[in-house]
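Why do we bother with holo predictions? Because pocket geometry can differ from the apo form. Keep that in mind while you read this record for guanosine-5'-diphosphate.
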Amino acid sequence: MAVVAVLYQIVTAEKQTNNNITTSVISKQMSDKSITVALAGNPNAGKTTLFNKLTGARQHVGNYPGITVDHKEGYFNHDGREIVITDLPGTYSLTAYSVEEIVSRDFLTTQRPDVVINIVDASNLERNLYLTTQFLEMGVPLVIALNMMDVAKDRGIEIKFAKLAELLGIPVVPIIARSGKGTDELIRQAIRIADSDKKWIPRDISYGEDLDEVLMEIIAAIEKASFLTERYHARFTAIKYLEHDDQMLTKGQEADQELARQLEQTVGTISDHLLKTMDVYPEAIIADHRYGFIKSIIRQGVMTHKFDTDRLYTSDKIDKVLTNRLLGPLVMLGILFGLYQFTFSWSELPVAWMEGLFSWLGAIVETTLPDGMLKSMVISGVIDGVGGVLGFVPLIMFMFFGIAILEDSGYLARVAFMMDRVFRMFGLHGSSVMPFIVSGGIAGGCAVPGVMATRTLRSPKERMATLLTVPFMNCGAKVPVLVLLIGAFFADHKALYMFLFTMLAWLVALFAAKFLRMTVLKGEATPFVMELPPYRFPTLRGLIIHTWERTWQYIKKAGTVILGISILLWALMTFPGLPQSEQDTFNAARNTITNSYSEAVQREVMDFNDNTDVLSEKALELKNRLKEIEQEESGLTLRNSVAGRIGSFFEPVSVYAGFDWKTNIAMLGGFAAKEVIISTLGTVYSMGDIDVDDADSLGKRLVKDPSWNSVVAVSALIFIMFYAPCFVTVVCIAKEASWKWAFFSMAFNTTFAFFASVLVFQIGNLLG
Ligand code: GDP
Ligand code: MG
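The structure, written out:
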């Protein structure tokens, strides 16, 4: 390729008849490679003016093969370097909607110029940068010529081009093409970029949760098939597919029918989904996010109007309040607190119904199934385990509904925008905010997509710091555990505590990140840019679909993974059972007690076992004494089980944090999936207490249990929030980073969580 380019230079140089290149310059030019430059920009941005200024008469006009678009090429020297410059047709975008766009795109990808000068009309910055974002996404080596500075000045527009350059990560040179002012510096920068000989590095712009997820899927397919990867980065091709780019679609058809079908189907599915939920096409969302990206750049003090004549759009007006330096964070906290208040107060009744439903189911099984292993498994493993998790479905649903409102309206992006300032203080990046929110920053996310969302971070160290700290957020699996413990021990201030624990999660994550950035992940911060899509009115249909999708995922998980783990843990908690000798001891004790009562009383207890009301006083006494033995026996069985032994093994250490062996079992189970903490606690506390008469909810059982109190509850909450991420997240971290980091994350988090809980427990006990 390089050889061809050099040959091309030589041939074109020879074609010039009236050139002023002397032999000595040519030999110099051979040593200092000549440079190819493409001039691109919106129509009327001043390309031709600049082109003429730079090349004078040394240009020739032809046609691009087969079409009527002008192909203008010219030559000039700068400090002895020869520059070949092409004036591309003016375009607003790089999607193949028009001939001009196709020509520009094809030229860039087939000719691969050393540098692209993107000429931008400074008096119309926002609109012009739309094309710029696409060059950034394509990854071409880019320099911005900020043209018409005179016009901008007349209109009272002031542009801080250094700031713009910093945020975009490319040189920005202000010029006045008509007078030639600034063009020397422009060419110097262009040569600098051309010489830096970098590969094309695309800039990833986030297109929102829905599209980003699909993009990853498409990118993987494109990379696997190496479709057009020699010309475009896979992400660019993927975006063009989402934009229904005809040329790309045709190329796909020609290259690989199977792949094309697969890609078109994926795109079709997401298009339908977006149409249904938000009534928009992917193209519109993509455009929105590009403008959001631009807006967030301009908003960071890049452009100021001296005359306040510019029209404010509704979104901008709303943002004046909602992202205001002082008011913004206050409103944000208010909204978050409101979300918890809404979730807890509205879901209280339905959650009680669900609890009632599962107690009722338990009671039915209790009376219909014969005593034995099966009954124990169904009641303790399935109903108390999975039921405990499913009981929170109404709450999860309300919470997701609230979050869907924030997300669909565009407010969540503002939260990210505001949090950004805070994040930089902790050595994280603006783009870290979304992964944090996705992982459960507002409670109810999941660390797995959170870890994957860190892909938009370009600096490896900032990415690593984000990836390792997102599991500290309160994901959807931890929420019910938090709710259970908060509900049981701090029933009067549920929303407040939930809010405080959410804040705590952020604080811990941020300080952990800072710690990592100061130790194992030391390094520079990189500038950031975040997208601000316009506000939209959420549609009810969209809200319901979004809520249902997530709720259904939760239910599905409870019905499959959690059910499996729950039964497995039940088995671990049941086997190997008590040794025969001890069983005999218990049976003997039972017999002795039973036989100390008259035969009539014995019969009464057997016949009316489930109906305490009709029992005589004597019979009731017998029943209660038998129950005591039963509880002692099942308690001992649990302690003797595999899980019980593991829990007991850790007890000497865990007591410092206030956890007994039963709680240890639940924490171990929680490593499989955090919801399992509830189901395991459910099973543990139902095994020692299998009588239906007081089939209390798990919360009530915990409050009654002597080994639990509010200090233990806080200590347990802290441990659950911060200890090792669940198994799936760990695997995901290993895939995104390495197994080394995955193990680091388990060890680091668990150690930290343990010491934090010990601290809380010991101090809590001191204070009583
Ligand atoms: P193209 O469509 O990108 O090739 O844009 P042109 O080079 O044809 O320029 C469009 C118009 O803007 C012409 O009337 C130019 O004279 C004018 N123009 C270009 N650059 C400048 C500049 O820096 N300042 C001013 N005031 N006008 C300019
Ligand atoms: Mg022109």
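The chain is about 65% helix and 5% strand.
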